[in-house]
Design a protein that fits this description.
Elements lengths: L2 H10 L11 H8 L24 E5 L7 H10 L5 E5 L1 H5 L21 E3 L6 H16 L24 E2 L4 E2 L19
Parallel strand pairs: 1-2, 2-3
Antiparallel strand pairs: 4-5
Helix pairs in contact: 1-5
């Protein structure tokens, strides 16, 4: 067993989530820690009450624009290495509320998301599968080279600017280091 494998084994089997839920997906997240599903079997024993004690943020539920500064602030306070699971359609894309003026169309516009967990709401089994996928991703990361984790890259950002409510909308409207609007190909006419 190599040093890289031992290091990643320790990291992947002690992922501590932040106690943080926003809407109906939070009920399913809470259910995943109960006796029937028992997320503790996977090294996520207790949801931590402080961002300084956690390394996994599960953004579960509808993210309103009023909540985004607090989410980014909590993410910035988490110690490295840190990971994010966007749980549910609302956290990924705004879900059924995305046409609302007050709902963010995806938390990945402001913080880096490692695992997208679709569903409305996703079941506890799906969250455990997402946690296992995150553990596999952590276990497969090399300590050096191009595929190394974000926290081992000197040019990688650990903290991101906290948006504020501007005159019309959040400013900045997204974090340009993480998210850029998709390019829409236009047909070329002669």
């Amino acid at each position: 067993m190599s040093l890289n494998e031992i290091y990643n084994w320790g990291r992947s089997n002690s992922v501590w989530p932040l106690q943080f839920g926003l809407a109906c997906c939070a009920i399913e997240m809470i259910a995943s820690t109960m006796a029937r599903y028992d997320m503790a079997r996977f090294g996520s024993e207790v949801f931590r009450p402080s961002p300084r004690q956690a390394d996994l943020m599960i953004v579960s539920g509808t993210v309103t624009k009023k909540m985004v500064p607090q989410i980014v602030r909590l993410y910035n306070q988490m110690a490295e290495p840190k990971y994010v699971i966007a749980m549910g359609a609302c956290a990924i894309s705004g879900g059924p509320f995305k046409q609302g003026y007050n709902v963010l169309k995806g938390i990945d516009r402001y913080i880096p998301v490692d695992i997208h967990l679709p569903g409305c709401p996703p079941k506890p089994e799906a969250l455990i599968h997402a946690l296992m996928s995150l553990q596999k991703m952590i276990a497969d990361q090399p300590l050096t080279g191009e595929g190394r984790p974000r926290h081992l890259k000197p040019e990688g950002a650990s903290e991101f600017p906290i948006p504020h409510q501007g005159e019309q909308d959040l400013e900045p409207p997204c974090n340009p280091h993480i998210w850029r609007p998709p390019a829409i190909p236009r047909p070329v006419t002669a």
